[in-house]
Amino acid sequence: MIELIAARGNTTLESAVTLTKDLRWEIQALGVRLAAAANDEELLRKRSSKARSREQNELELKLVVSDIRKLLLRIEDAVPLINLAITTSGVSLSSTLPATVSPSRLLQASTFLTAGDTVYSTAPTTAVQIGPVYVLSMYMLFAGHAWRPHDEEGVRETTWKEVIHKARVKLVRVPLDRLYDLPEAEIPGGLKSNGGNADHSSRNIPSEAKSLEFAYQLIVIEDLDDDRVHSFEDGDVQPGPYYGVTLAGIRDVIPIHEISKIFYADTGKILNIGSEGEVNSPILLLKRDINAEAPRRMMERQRTEEPQ
Question: What's one Pfam family the UniProt record gives for this protein (predicted)?
Fold first, then answer.
């Protein structure tokens, strides 16, 4: 939490970031060592040929216990300094939910993520849908109004263009090497990748197909069964069945890390979206940064920049 607050621009906590980051990395490293030691102990009980000797396992456990005691002493020394930094900065680390957040919706979202992660862990080379399919109308800011002032009146005067009247949007957890790929077809347990789009294959991240390696993307599919008339020229791509949609038109994928800002409004009137007769027309506004780096890319770049 201190790292997040400092990243948002609170410079008074920057002095505590280095300390908290070191402690967090040590805790995570000890967790990995404990998991490995527990795995070795399990192999030893099963008398597996891959198991280390009893002496090596006991020595590793003693070293882990010793490092845990050292870490506890470091935490006891660091807590007063961290509390002092928090107090002087004036920030609040309260975990109370904001009044605008629904606890039931938060638990529902957590359940969707947990269920998807469980399925993904059994087959990390496939993609898994998270939660339900959302049927939405999609608008994009008209290019001529993209650089208007960001005050309230300027926002109301902007022009929004409806690009998809009926879109089926799905949140999907995918392997790292399919971050920019559209799914080819639906198969039991997940999605089959199309092998990498020519424009995006170079941007995909090499992956070892581990359950801990993952990324999220939004799949947007236009459903032309929307009670509207659509015409297509002979040379255009003709609509057809695709990923559960009988008449699919536009198909696009948006990696989650490219969403730089997100806003929600109960009504579209503030953006002049929707018709006058619509009473309930909630709006989810996403700002996309197509040049944003994936988290893995950022970590790789940080490692290369660190002095050896």
Answer: Ran-binding
- β-strands 245-255, 128-141: how paired? unpaired
* 224-245 burial code (b ≥16 CB/10 A, e <16): bebeeeeeeeeeeeebeebbeb
State the Cα–Cα distance between residues 308 and 291, nearest whole angstrom.
29
**Average confidence (pLDDT) over 138-164:** 66
Task: Answer yes or no: is pLDDT of 25 > 80.
Answer: yes
CA-angle at 107, arms to 106 and 109, nearest 5°? 65
Closest CA to 178 of 145, 216, 148: 216
Q: What is the dihedral of CA 295, 300, 306, 308, to 10 degrees?
A: 150
Region of 110 (left: φ > 0; alpha: ψ -120 to 50; beta: rest) is alpha
Q: Give the span between the Cα atoms of 259 and 180, in whole angstroms.
A: 14
Q: Which neighbouring-strand residues pair with 129?
A: 172
Could you tell me the two tokens for 69? 């005691």
Percentage of the chain surpassing pLDDT 90? 11
Residue 218: alpha-carbon gap to chain centroid: 10
Output the pLDDT for position 190. 39
**Pair type for strands 190-193 and 259-265:** unpaired
